[in-house]
Design a protein that fits this description.
Layout lengths: L5 E6 L3 H15 L3 E5 L7 H12 L3 E3 L5 H4 L4 E5 L13 H11 L3 E4 L21 E5 L12 E5 L5
Parallel strand pairs: 1-2, 1-4, 2-3, 4-5, 5-6, 6-7
Helix pairs in contact: 1-2
Length: 159
């Protein structure tokens, strides 16, 4: 038998994290084996409801990963930590998480914007995620100009 790819979806507390929760649910429905790493949960009712949906589908929810080797158990990391409103320095716990993801060398797929990148300027600090794949939602952001991996455009388009 062929095993479904294991995908670690790392969710931040904002809109990008909500996108990650939705993505994990859809990945589950398409036969993948997602887990959600959600170290700083949002108190927003919408995100709480999305998390409940994932729990009802028996998607594993992880609160903490302390060792880089844990990431190596996954085929991909889906980066949905920070979105287009990110500015400034990467703060804990996400600074350590991003460092661990980079050290693990597991392929990363970023949702909308690679976490730690500035929406207009890109990976200015060089501390952001370096994904293999970027999935821009609705429209590519300016920072995508400095991205050199595989780039997809996705989302729902309303006339």
């Amino acid at each position: 038998t062929i095993e479904s790819p294991k995908i670690l979806t790392i969710c931040g507390p904002g809109n990008n994290g909500g996108d990650g929760l939705v993505a994990a649910r859809h990945l589950h429905h398409f036969g993948f084996n997602p887990s959600i790493y959600y170290p700083k949960r949002s108190k927003n009712q919408l995100y709480e409801n999305l998390l409940i949906q994932c729990e009802q589908h028996k998607i594993e929810i992880i609160d903490e990963i302390s060792e880089v080797d844990k990431y190596k158990e996954y085929d991909f990391v889906l980066d949905s930590i920070f979105g287009f409103s990110f500015k400034g320095d990467i703060r804990e716990p996400f600074k350590t998480i991003i460092q661990q993801v980079k050290q693990s060398q597991v392929p990363v797929i970023s949702v909308d914007i690679p976490s730690g990148w500035e929406v207009d300027a890109g990976n200015v600090s060089q501390e952001g995620v370096n994904p293999s794949v970027l999935i821009s939602l609705t429209a590519p952001k300016k920072c995508a100009e400095s991205f050199d991996g595989v780039h997809y455009l996705g989302g729902r388009f309303v006339p």
